[in-house]
Amino acid sequence: MVDTARILIGGDVCLGGRQQVLCMAETPRGLFGDILPELESADFSLINLECPLTSSRKEVRKSGPCLKGHTESIKTIRNAQIRAVNLANNHIMDYGLKGLCETIEVCKNENVELFGAGANFEEASKPLVTQVNSIRLAFMGMAENEGFFASTNRSGANPIDVRNFLKVMELKKSGLDYLVVLLHAGKEYYPLPSPSLLHLCHFLADLGADAIICQHSHCVGSYEAYGDSLIVYGQGNLYFPPFSFSPPSWDQGVLVELSFSKNKAIGMKYKFIPFVNPRGETGIKRLSEIDERHLLDDFEKRSAVLRDYASLERAWETLCLSHSEKVLYQLMGSNRIFRYLLSKLNVRRYFFDEEWYLWLKNIIQCESHRDIAGKILDNHLKKRFER
């Protein structure tokens, strides 16, 4: 039996938009284009499926857009030799329980394995354990909490839960060779991790995760070799139709190739395969040799920041400050007219004093206060939408 395994991980995938016909075509060349040979030649390929595949028209009420793809799109996935999909993300519940159940059903019907979401926390938190050649692997999907996570009696995505991760690590001790974590986390369009995300990924690696791939940022970010583990903070989209406001970085991505060896002295090797999704064209394109080198060079330059924690903190603070006005006005709960007046007349200090800011900071920062606020908002929204 072969004592190595070549695994290929693709980023965020939304099988909808203007090229719906390509998404539903049984021949995957039109959608995956130049990277199809890479997907087909890998021993095991997987992606983050960031939309339910459903016939439902009933969107959930949420902040942000609701996404979906046609149920027939799963055939394009299958025929591209994509063996598994991660469902731990902030869009898998966009069409509620029906959307999730249809997605699970069509995946099972087409023999596409899945992980990262389920009818309850027990189902959602189960890793995908599989053998590729002689290598026994586990894939685990976790997502930041954007309101649609699974619990004891509620369907949804698998949340970031350290206690459950420790249980998965017990599996690794009992015969798994490697564990790969797909983490749906980070700030959209920002190529670096926040300090807290960096600490979380280091913690998961310290516990035994061999590779941690952060998705969700919709841009090629940065990466680091941490001990014997690989951590990627953003690999960009694989296929995701752009919105009108999507920046150019939306169209670029990298496949993450992991080569595992049964010989632990050799361990895991990795490489990145860049590509682009040109707007107005069909099919993913490989970059020219020069453009590929530029993308990978930029990837390396950004990654150098991770080796200087003070620089990482300064970059994060700069980002936060650039969003301060927008976030503060949203937290104030004011409408657009009121926000405009506060901004133009510079009278915010008369409406919101220092005590208000301290109170708000305490609610957001303290875990117990944050839980209480979240439950109050859940109940308020439930009553409001039931009217």
Give a structural overview:
The structure is a single chain. With 387 residues, this protein is an alpha/beta fold. It folds into 2 domains: 4-309, 4-Layer Sandwich (Purple Acid Phosphatase, chain A, domain 2); 313-386, no CATH class. It is 39% helix and 24% strand. It contains 15 helices and 16 strands. The protein has helices at residues 20-24, 29-32, 36-41, 73-79, 96-109, 121-124, 162-173, 195-207, 289-304, 309-322, 324-332, 336-345, 348-351, 354-365, 367-386; strands spanning 4-13, 44-49, 82-86, 113-115, 117-118, 128-132, 135-143, 156-157, 178-184, 211-215, 220-226, 229-235, 237-239, 252-261, 268-276, 285-286. Strands 1, 2, 3, 4, 13, 14, 15 and 16 form an 8-stranded mixed sheet that branches. A hairpin with a 2-residue loop joins strand 6 and strand 7. Helix 14 (354-365) crosses helix 15 (367-386). The chain is globular, with a radius of gyration of 21 Å. The N and C termini lie far apart (62 Å).
